[in-house]
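Need C-alpha cells for this chain, all 361 residues.
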Amino acid sequence: MDGPGGRAAGGTGRTVGADGTPRDARHGGGGGGGGGGEAAAVRAVARRLGLPGLLDVHTHFMPDRVLRKVWAYFDGVEDLTGVAWPITYREEEDRRVDLLRRFGVLRFTSMVYPHKAGMARWLNDWAAGFATRVPECLCTGTLYPEDGVGRYVTEHLARGARVFKVHLQVGDFDPNDPLLDPAWGALADARVPVVVHCGSGPTPGAHTGPGPVGRLLARYPRLRLVVAHMGMPEYADFLDLAERYDEVRLDTTMVFTDFSERLAPFPRQEHGRLLALGDRVLLGSDFPNIPYGYLHQLEALERLGLGDDWLRGVLHGNAAALFADAGTGADPGTGADPGTGAAGTGTAGTGMDSQGIHRNA
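Here are the C-alpha cells for all 361 residues:
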C-alpha cells in the first residue's frame, strides 16, 4: 500500500514531512524504529486488554535479495505515485524477528507471493525453512496459475503450511484461472486461510476489486479467504462479501492509520458493520515495510471506539480461533509473555507475517 510521507532531503537518509520538518526516513516519522519505549508501549496495549500478546497475520519476511528489491521499489515509489514511503524497520532479518518478539507478537507470517511463473515453489521452500528457524512464524505458502500448482500446494500443505498469500495486483492474474482449481480445492478442503490482496489500492489491476474474488467465492464458498487491507479502497464491497460468505475475513493492514486515511479513508458509516463482523477481523500490520511505527496501527484500531471486546478479538482471539481450527494438526495453544516475548503457555497464540514481491523484484 502507499500513503503520504516525505521527500528525500538531499540523500541524507532523512525525509521532509508535510510541514517541512526533517525526520529520519528509517523511522518514518511515526514514532517507530523499535526502540525500548515503542516496544513497551505495544506490549502495554495487550496487557491493558488482558491478552498474552498479539497475533499478526500480515507481516513481511522473504529472501534477502528479494526484500532488498522491494525496499528499492518503495524508495522510488514517490516518482510513480507522488507519495514517499520511508521504511520504518529497515533492519537485518534477525533484528526484525527480535523486534516482533519484543513487541509481544506471539505468531506472525512470511507473506511470500510471486510475480511470475516458476517462483512460487522456491518461495514456499524458503518460507518452510524460515518457519523452521523461527518457530513463531506460521509456515506460509503462495501460488501462481501455472502447470503443477495443485501438486506443489498439496505438498506444501502436507509439510505443515498454515496460511497462504496471494497478490492479485502484483501477480496480475485472475483467481478464476482454471489452472488454479486444484489448488483452491485443496486449500478449501484443508481449511487453511488464504490472505489475498484483492482490493484496488494503491493502484487498480486488471483482476482487483470485488468482482474476481466474488466469482471465486461463488465457486468455492468454503474457502477461508482473508481480504488484505480490508479491500482498500473498496471497503463496502468487501464487507458485503464477508456478510455473504461465512468463511471470509478481513485484515486491518494499514487501514485506519493516518497514512491511509489521507488516501483511502474508511467510511464512518460502515463502522456498524465492522462491529457486527468483529469475530472475522484480524490484525495485520505490513511490518516491516510500513512508513510509521508499529504502535500506530494499534492506536488507529483503538481510536475507532468499537470497544475492548472487539479489540481483543482483532488483536488475538479471532486469529487464535481461526488457526486452531485450520485443519493442520498443529497446536496453536502456545503463548508468550508479552513483556518478554518468551515462549510460554497461554491461551491460543497465532500470528503471521506478510511478505511481498513486486514486479521489479
